[in-house]
Design a protein that fits this description.
Length: 684
């Protein structure tokens, strides 16, 4: 199959947009060129280009289809609309079976024709997060000025340009020319295929594959010094790989006078302002080095570049030193009143009000998680105080971290200081959860207050976005509970969080709605872990349990049952019972209530009724004792009598009373099982 190769060469593309742009290019080209059945799609991205290659058919085969239009006696307007829709004329249609019919035939379309027609509109409407116009006389939008387009099919140019109406599209047309490194190898050169493009760009000092650039950077940083290693920072590595085409890692030294700054301050300052990598010694302590990545091979082994970056870093750290020294002149406690002047949300009041809510919540949660109420209350009162410090104003990423340092400087209890730092955790899936009791209490209070407040004002997450990170807050609550194996009833805590809003006239939603949201997030969490999220849905449907640890234990027990031979057959029988009841209830149901034992004629239905009665006596106490595995073992005993019942007994007997009695017995089967889980929600 012919190879299609497309490269879009522009001025520097923001690093954060490159990977998504390459994905969009592959997706959009795959859709637009679907008639050519593209395969082996591969994309590349970098600071000045996105590109793709694919194997495509050499043409679209001829085809014929028949479109049925309106009835022959339909109004003339209906027929005119049909013809207009298909671009046909009256002499192209015929009558068949009382309808107007159009036979559509299309000739074979060469691949280059389809590509030339599809690519220009795709590029004109490319979904960059931000685009720009440049120059005069054109409305063509691109993330940065687009300079060249390479479009080849088996080495030959697919000719097209970006003109549209009166817009000249900056005169951009497809060709064979691309450009190498801006400084090492300036100027244009021709390419003939994707492999030829990658090989020639390598010779022109451009690594086209982002993975290769990341590997060069990571390997280079790791070998810059034998004393220390770079701090693992995948996000920064991705970003820097999007800033350079020919990465050259270099090592600078940090002035010893700044090594007494908190390591987080140094690392964030280097990362945010300069895209530098921090280093650590093998024992985990900070090393006086930083790594950075140049986009050229310097003639002096980087001496001038290193000296310049060290000078810039000294200025950055001097600013940080100013904030560090100034912030410690005032106690953290003295900053709490200032939070009344910091808006949390226009409809939800100030950070000061929020802090007072957190105090009450954390104090109530504390004994439930083994923390001292006074300790949790103190931590909650100070939790947001560092928001009004100079350091956090400069580096918002350090909120909580700086609060801990300032609390320790003020002589606060170390547990209070740690809770200030940890109450934001976990911020992401790779972040550890708080494990100290006071920190757990404040972290849960913080996330519950956030969820209840934003849900109350209608700011729920949608498919389009989650601007207030409510999904993250919910997942944080769940992870804290799960990883600390906490036994908490969430509904009373949600109600308590809601009570703190009444003085503002905010009316929280019913707690059950927020519990449903948390259950949905738990299903997402289990799905990501590869666990049976459908079992969780089944267990939750049997009773909206607000104890996450107990809910998961029940789900694990049901999963264990379903993994056994008895469980598989029991699920099959349950579905058979549910199907029978659905059909028969529609006729003359519902068939609820206890069956009449005197009308149980067949031995198999008598045995089933006896087993159901025993289960009713056994399962309830086991569930009460939270012996869920024991309850599943008892339920498994239902399999044999239920199998024999369905094999030997005709449920829809000829005698009406006998039929109704047997349907009530089948209903009892479903009801007994539904006490444990709604097995209708089990997939597969």
């Amino acid at each position: 199959m012919p190879e299609l190769f497309l490269e879009l060469f522009s001025e520097e593309i923001p690093a954060r947009m490159q990977a998504r742009a390459a994905e969009d290019l592959s997706r959009l080209c795959g859709d637009a060129l679907a008639p050519l059945e593209p395969t082996k799609l591969r994309s590349w991205y970098g600071p000045r280009r996105i590109a793709l290659s694919a194997e495509v058919a050499d043409s679209v085969a001829p085809s014929s289809t028949t479109e049925r239009g309106p009835r022959t006696n339909a109004p003339e307007q209906a027929l005119a609309g049909f013809l207009r829709k298909h671009g046909a004329s009256r002499d192209q249609i015929r009558q068949e079976g009382g309808y107007w019919v159009l036979d559509k035939r299309s000739d074979a379309v060469p691949a280059e024709h389809l590509i030339a027609e599809a690519i220009p509109p795709l590029l004109r409407r490319f979904p960059w997060p931000k685009s720009m116009r440049w120059g005069a006389g054109s409305n063509f939008l691109w993330v940065r000025p687009l300079r060249r387009i390479v479009c080849l099919l088996d080495g030959d140019v697919v000719p097209f340009d970006l003109r549209e109406g009166d817009d000249d599209g900056h005169g951009l047309a497809s060709g064979t020319l691309t450009e190498g490194h801006r400084f090492h190898a300036p100027g244009a050169f021709a390419v003939a295929s994707a492999p030829d493009w990658a090989e020639k760009l390598l010779a022109h000092r451009v690594l086209v594959d982002a993975g290769d650039r990341k590997a060069v950077i990571a390997r280079g940083l790791a070998t810059l010094t034998n004393e220390a290693q770079p701090v693992d920072d995948p996000g920064l590595l991705d970003e820097v790989a999007g800033l350079v085409e020919w990465p050259v890692p270099l090592l600078g030294r940090i002035d010893p006078g700044f090594m007494d700054l908190p390591p987080e301050v140094r690392q964030v300052s280097m990362r945010v302002n300069q895209r530098y990598f921090a280093f650590r010694y093998p024992d985990g302590t900070a090393a006086p080095y930083f790594g950075f990545v140049a986009n050229i091979e310097p003639a002096d082994a980087g001496a001038i570049s290193i000296a310049g970056n060290e000078r810039v870093l000294r200025a950055r750290f001097a600013d940080a030193r100013h904030f560090w020294d100034l912030d410690r002149k005032a106690r953290l406690e003295s900053r709490v009143p200032l939070l009344d002047h910091v808006t949390f949300h226009a409809k939800l009041g100030s950070q000061g009000e929020r802090g007072r809510r957190l105090e009450r919540l954390a104090e109530e949660i504390a004994p439930l998680v083994g923390a001292g109420p006074a300790l949790a209350r103190d931590a909650a009162r100070l939790a947001k105080a560092d928001l009004v410090t100079g350091m956090v104003g400069e580096f918002p990423e350090l909120q909580g971290v700086m609060g801990r340092y300032y609390a320790l400087h003020d002589g606060e209890d170390p547990l209070v200081a740690d809770a200030i730092r940890d109450h934001y955790a976990p911020k992401g899936p790779a972040d550890a959860v708080p494990t100290a009791e006071a920190a757990i209490a404040v972290a849960l209070a913080d996330k519950l207050d956030q969820l209840v407040g934003f849900f109350a004002i209608g700011e729920r997450p949608t498919g389009a976005g989650d601007p207030f990170a409510l999904r993250r807050a919910a997942l944080g609550i769940l992870r804290i509970i799960r990883e600390n194996r906490l036994r908490l009833n969430l509904l009373p805590l949600i109600r308590l969080a809601g009570e703190t809003w009444h003085h503002r006239g905010v009316h929280p939603l019913p707690p059950e709605e927020l519990l449903d949201f948390l259950a949905d997030r738990l299903r997402v969490q289990l799905r990501a872990e590869g666990a049976r999220h459908d079992v969780l849905s089944a267990v939750f449907a049997a009773g909206a349990d607000d104890d996450v640890t107990r809910l998961l234990a029940r789900a694990e027990a049901v999963t264990s049952l379903l993994g056994s031979d008895d469980g598989i057959h029991l699920l099959t029988a349950y579905r058979r019972a549910a199907n029978i009841l659905r059909i028969e209830d529609r006729k003359d149901g519902p068939h609820t209530g206890a069956p009449d034992n005197d009308m149980l004629i067949a031995p198999e239905e008598q045995a089933l009724a006896h087993t159901l009665e025993e289960l009713g006596q056994q399962v309830a106490p086991l569930l009460e004792q939270e012996d869920f595995l024991g309850a599943m073992a008892a339920l498994a005993r239902l399999r044999a009598p239920l199998d024999r019942f369905f094999d030997k007994v005709t449920v829809n007997a000829q005698q009406p009373e006998l039929r109704r009695n047997r349907l009530r017995l089948v209903h009892q089967v479903r009801a007994r099982m539904d006490r444990i889980a709604d097995f209708s929600k089990i997939e597969g």
